[in-house]
Amino acid sequence: MESRNFLRFLAISLSVSLVLFFTWVHLPYAPQPNTTTDLLYCSTNSPWCTSKNRFQSINKPSTADNILEKPPNPKHHKVHNHESDTPHHPLDPLTISEINRVRTILKSHALFKSSSPFAFHSVVLEEPDKTLVLQWKKGDSLLPRKAAVVARVAGKSHVLTVDITTGEVAVQETGSRSGYPTMTIEDMTSSTWAPLSNADFNRTIIQRGVDLQDLACLPISLGWFGESEENRRLIKVQCYSMEGTANFYMRPIEGLTVLLDMDSKEVVEISDKGRDIPIPKAANTDYRYSAQKINPEMMFVNPISIEQPKGPSFTVEDEHLVKWANWEFHLKPDPRAGVIISRAKVRDPDSGEMRNVMYKGFTSELFVPYMDPTDAWYFKTYMDAGEYGFGLQAMPLDPLNDCPRNAYYMDGVFAAGDGTPYVRSDMVCVFERYAGDIGWRHSESPITGMEIREVRPKVTLVVRMAASVANYDYIVDWEFQTDGLIRIKVGLSGILMVKGTSYVNTNQVPGQQNLYGTLLSENVIGVIHDHYITFYLDMDIDGSDNSFVEVNIKKQKTPPGESPRRSYLKAIRNVAKTEKDAQIQFKLYDPSEFHVVNPMKRTRVGNPVGYKVVPAGTAASLLDHDDPPQKRGAFTNNQIWVTPYNRSEQWAGGLFVYQSQGEDTLAVWSERDRPIENRDIVLWYTLGFHHVPCQEDFPIMPTVSSSFDLKPVNFFESNPILRIPPNVEKDLPVCKPAASA
Amino acid sequence: MESRNFLRFLAISLSVSLVLFFTWVHLPYAPQPNTTTDLLYCSTNSPWCTSKNRFQSINKPSTADNILEKPPNPKHHKVHNHESDTPHHPLDPLTISEINRVRTILKSHALFKSSSPFAFHSVVLEEPDKTLVLQWKKGDSLLPRKAAVVARVAGKSHVLTVDITTGEVAVQETGSRSGYPTMTIEDMTSSTWAPLSNADFNRTIIQRGVDLQDLACLPISLGWFGESEENRRLIKVQCYSMEGTANFYMRPIEGLTVLLDMDSKEVVEISDKGRDIPIPKAANTDYRYSAQKINPEMMFVNPISIEQPKGPSFTVEDEHLVKWANWEFHLKPDPRAGVIISRAKVRDPDSGEMRNVMYKGFTSELFVPYMDPTDAWYFKTYMDAGEYGFGLQAMPLDPLNDCPRNAYYMDGVFAAGDGTPYVRSDMVCVFERYAGDIGWRHSESPITGMEIREVRPKVTLVVRMAASVANYDYIVDWEFQTDGLIRIKVGLSGILMVKGTSYVNTNQVPGQQNLYGTLLSENVIGVIHDHYITFYLDMDIDGSDNSFVEVNIKKQKTPPGESPRRSYLKAIRNVAKTEKDAQIQFKLYDPSEFHVVNPMKRTRVGNPVGYKVVPAGTAASLLDHDDPPQKRGAFTNNQIWVTPYNRSEQWAGGLFVYQSQGEDTLAVWSERDRPIENRDIVLWYTLGFHHVPCQEDFPIMPTVSSSFDLKPVNFFESNPILRIPPNVEKDLPVCKPAASA
After folding, report:
1. Which residue intervals define the domain Copper amine oxidase N2-terminal in the entry (chains A, B) (predicted)?
2. Cβ contact (<8 Å) for A622 and B690?
3. CATH number of B321-366+383-439+455-498+529-621+632-660+673-691+709-731: 3.40.50.300, 2.70.98.20, 2.60.40.10, 3.40.50.150?
4. Which CATH number describes the domain made up of A315-731?
5. What digits encode the pLDDT tens for the residues B48-62?
6. Nearest Cα residue to B80 out of B410, B419, B555, B367
7. Residue in B216, B698, B729 nearest the CB of A75
8. ipTM attached to this prediction
9. Is the pLDDT confidence value at B14 over 60?
10. Does B446 contact A189 at a Cβ distance shorter than 8 Å?
11. Which residues of B are catalytic?
């Protein structure tokens, strides 16, 4: 679509939406359709599944619509009909029919029988007890299937367990904790349109010179900063002009913030403090390929591809069990965590046995504080998983670009705010990766003159998702290596959240004035911010009872006269007894290794079997511990924490993060200082980034990545990839350019 | 070759070598052949070029020999005849005829006319003045060609400049600095055999139960620990049993150290303190594929490959000028540094102009201290570049395994100890890499509902070499990204230097006894050690005069009542005035970005153009600053240093590192605290690893990597890869399994 046509399309869509919207806001909550089949088709085929496009496609979408929405590479994209899905594994996510059954069960439950408005904020599998899952083997009958439901009814949050077989509903006590559940997609989309029903708002927009039909607004979680923001579910809305660009993020209507009641959709307050700030120009902001003028001087590269002519070496059994090389794990999409890896096991090369490594691993929470204390910015301290749903924001991946051609795609099946199931297609990809790297090598050198050169290529398996939380894109990779290492990598791309300014050049900025960021383009400031991504890692090294060992690398002085050396380093093992022993801040000049070991199991020569967490580049949060955002994001106060396994402690920022006050975080749990030695323990790792934007991040950011590793340490008796074969020419594919095929 | 045959072959070779050796040690230095052609062929075709195999192949090798030595993939391996090489660029390395000319010139020089023994420790291009190189353009006549020669004559080191055209020889004043030049290959190989001429040594070996023909010895640089080791060139030799395994490194004859005079080859002292320590068993130590019993339960992966059916997108002009996508740089092998990247320039996507980024970058020095202060270990504090020659130890790469199939190979042309040129074939590879990564991406989310999904794959160009410094293998990658980023990555693989012990299980070790490492297998301890790799990075951001800016990320408190936020982070720019301002130790809780900027050039909106160095995982040296090894390796006292450009300051540990006392290191130069603002400056970066070995490192180590980046920061006006196209199916190759081709 040309950019002019696209704008026309947007304008028309917007007008239609507005009409629909005014209908919508007069309904108490999402209407309950009689059958779900139509909705299901809508969402199976569309990358987006919101109230907006569900209205538009209440009937099966036409073929024309489908073409637009289908991934560009149908050859490699097998559309899976999820209607007949059945669970096979105790950890398999809820199926469409199970979600429908939950809705039916709850419909007749007392809570939902009144005429009070309600919404389902989460409908996911209630995982069976860990002990039961550990005992379960393929062929056993499936454990009782239950759903964990978070619902809001008449303004109150409820956590329910629904037994899908018996229909029993148990209401859990959530206590008096602060905060609200993760927003529904409907909360977010309806909030973006709600200010338009306010005449003052519309007047303000027009005064800023923006046509209402060019308006794009974002729902911004407002954190918690004190009493004025308690006891009602609030959100802030800020808007942009999409005139002349699809990249409206670069055209902020600066300083305009609408405080909205998310339940009533009532405008509580409009703050307009940026009237003198021009809206930055649209020129050079569009990033779509169709909008580019291609510079012929720019040299491109010849086609390049990862190829496996005999196909991938992994299988996905029963939809969710991935088996590859010496690895096996359960993989499922999750609306809050994005991707959950469970029961990761690796084969011992000597015994052939599959050995437990990790019971469960996922992105537990994100914390993204912006570093501008002024009116329109101070509250931007996002917690993307608990507020927006990291999985809800994970869009369909682009075949050939988000993942290589040899990738396998997995869909997510989620529940909408009204409880109806929908499919987020191609949400996760799995692929084998060969990057030209070396698994191990050795050449004999001229020193010995022996003619030896042994090299093994490194091939890995990657599980990927990409969450687009409004402007930002987070790429999360779980990479499995045949040597037993798991690399967890987070890539940041997408679009900056920028601030309008009247400056067009840094030479206009008075000496001491703080811009809170970098001038990226005329009238555009990229505001400094941090990203913290906290991972839940329930390590089970050869069994559930493990210990956390800090192996401190400490300088030793030699006694005078004993050695020509004055100093050397020694590795000193300290087993953590309680949680406080395992609250770790990294120190370059007082370094340690961090092991999770099974103290009851030793190698042949007597080392405790273990895995270590190996940090790479990271950043630490430097905010005041009593700053409200840091209280809520206190799980970033350390880089590592270890807690005893507790099934209620999965979300580092708390179960109800939205507007929470920080009394249910990992930091609070850990203060209880429970014993963690030789117990079932959970390791928490926070990966951090300081982001001082630069012009290269405009108008869209080249990916920046960092990672950390879970690495076997005396887990195997010896190098587990000693016996893998080298590449030989006769095994490699014969490839031709596509054009000459 | 089967392992039995291999042993027989070794035994025979050894016997032949011994005979040759006894002839050899009675010659003052390497004999001077009349013509070099024969030697040249030997070395072109053999991965090894040592005195040993030069003797064996004084005539052109037979076809049978050739087959053994040729890389396994001749299809992709174009043998280049270097005899007719001529230089095209002022930075091109010396050619074979130039090296021969240098020998001829020096033969008639007074220094070499006496009958005193002499050896050439380095014969490389003397690079023309930087200003001349910067002015030079293709088509200009070549700048005068000169060689920089380091020679030892009658026990004295000399640095000579030889004008290849005029034949003029200038002898440089080297002052009274301590230390000796990098060992020649002949120094190393002859040292390993020298102890065999000592009857006491042979008796000791036999007493240890090792047959002399199973002996493998290593020449170990002994550092410097005081007066007793001064005023003569010494080396320590330690030995291993290669009975039953090609991996003799796992079978140390523990505690036996021979102190040898490297010039006279005289045994100075034999220290034998490990008589009670058994030699570890050979079982399970061989890593060669031919020696493996393959476990059928172990699952392997299907063939996988990086494919470019239209061929690579880069060209190598005139043997050394690499042009790829928006990059151009000069690449050459170097006997000391391994690989030198010069004149790296990137194309500006707006102006089309090639812009200077880096004048010269290379591995300047390594420092590898082992952490065991006992007699046979305290001195192991290797400086691999200055002592052994990082390039001299870079062996021919294994096509298909060291580099993917689409790789291009470059040979090194070096001079042997007698000044004759030889070819180290396939020493460097260059390849394009697609690893399934994402250059940038953005999807619109349900929040806005816009149907946008734009993703660009990431393709990079890698320059790789692998140096095998005896047991260890260092893989050095320079990876160029189209977004202007350069990633410098070091991978560690190869074989541990291990210590024999009488223990076979940790339960035998008395509580407080320090093993100095990890028990890896019965009787084998992997000793703790560090690796530091220090890079010389002469950044020239849009010109030579640059400044170093530390952008400190500092917590600010908000004045009470001004904001609901109590704290935020601010980026504070501090321009380094002198060297001491730029002696940087990283601090997680007081973080900074480190920019090299051109203070005279700004972007359109007024930011100084620059590059930043972005650390990833690293380690800092913790040894006492007054410990002799740390004095010599004092260049690792900081992670970053910045010095004014000085053509004599290239080697962080000093020009003459061997047995040096540390008075010519980067740390000493930097203490002069010279001005560095708006000058031609050099950035030094040290990448570090603490290595506490684990059983997975036995008998050969899976690669461990770390890296750092040089990244544009306000260098471009905007994202330089905005306009690259996405992948589409029609461009990708059509591949078949080789068997069905």
Report:
1. 89-170
2. no
3. 2.70.98.20
4. 2.70.98.20
5. 333 333 322 223 333
6. B410
7. B729
8. 0.92
9. no
10. yes
11. 384, 472
